[in-house]
Amino acid sequence: MLAALACREPDRVPYMELGVDRALAQRLLGWSGTASQRANLEAQSFSASEAREIAQNLGMDNVSFVLRAPIYADKIEGKDGRLFYGQGHIRSRSDLALIRLPDPEDDSLYAEAREFVAGKGDFAACFVTRAGIFPTLLSMGIEGFSTAVYDDPGFVGEVLDRYFAWAVKVARRACSLGFDCYISTDDMAFKTAPYFSPALFRELVLPRYRELARAVSLPWIVHSDGNILPFLDDLLDLGIVGIHPLENGAVDIREVKRRYGRRVCLMGNVDLNLLGNGTPAAVEAEVRGLIRDLAPGGGYILTSGNSLAGYCLPDNVRALAAAARKYGAYGASPPGR
User: Fold this and answer.
1) Rounded CA gap, 185 and 207, in Å?
2) Which range (44-53, 88-97, 253-262, 283-292) has the least confidence?
């Protein structure tokens, strides 16, 4: 995985997942217990031993530890404990006092992370967090965020500052714990276009990302659903080494390979709709095509188009994992159509 992030060809195409829904993991591995664990509802984290078991079962090359700042919004528990966010609570400057983030200098905040790294085994250990855009949007609510971006961008900036300041301090600590890569999950686009114009991104978001870049000393992967191509060059100028997941239906991952394949590792993008509603044969064909078109020259990591959600069919997930092993070896004949 680290070789691919450096845009080199490893011995085989790595397979990684940003996350695996606990309900799905229980079905895949036959774990007992209920899917809903309210104390862990927001993070959906696993212990090191659980993460290793999932990775070994699916032939993944990574394990992921999640530490995210709290979101100030209504939280709605859906099927199998899946979390949905509702109305944001940060609606005006008077609400800023509600934002009380864990002390990023408190050693106890990183106790589980240290334990996770110590038990990572022979896997790339990914530290997964959020930078600031998505927590701001969720805490303000998408409608409140969208109108404030137009009416009062300074207010949006104040919320961003609170989250980014926390993320910068956490990044410095996390990057010293023995993780292999740092992943920030900040959705900033719809399928058609970003949430805001490139000009506003460069004014409102990019300076804060630059502060974060100075704190990140590990290979940095950025996750965002949707079409982020209008400011992909800005992100790459920060030194980001991986882009995840290049969402199917939002971007053409093959065109991104042609344009950026020597600059950044591409990670993606087996369609979640296919994993949830398709057949194992269709999943295998999808994986075969992705590896055929994206693996040559290196700098490619196979992964789902987001994460392995609870609605993915276990047989399709197993087909994804099996196809990664079947077609992923470098030096073999390219998989045919």
Assistant:
1) 18
2) 44-53
Cβ 173 vs Cβ 65: under 8 Å: no
In a domain, residue 208? The reply is yes
Per the listing, tokens 């961003």 go with 160
Q: Hunting for tokens 């996390």 — which residue is that?
A: 174
Are residues 14 and 302 in contact, defined by beta-carbon separation less than 8 angstroms? yes
Q: The domain spanning residue 129 has which CATH number? A: 3.20.20.210
310, part of any domain = yes
Give the chain's domain count.
1
Three state DSSP letters for 13-62: CCECCCCECHHHHHHHHCCCCCCCCHHHCCCCCCCHHHHHHHHHHHCCCE
User: pLDDT tens across 111-122, in order?
Assistant: 999 999 999 999
DSSP 96: G
Q: How far apart are CA 322 and CA 312, in angstroms?
A: 15
Range of the domain at 240: 2-327
The answer as to whether 195 is a domain residue is yes
User: 153 lies in a domain?
Assistant: yes
**Rounded CA separation 188/134 (Å):** 7
Question: What is the pTM (predicted TM-score) of this model?
Answer: 0.94
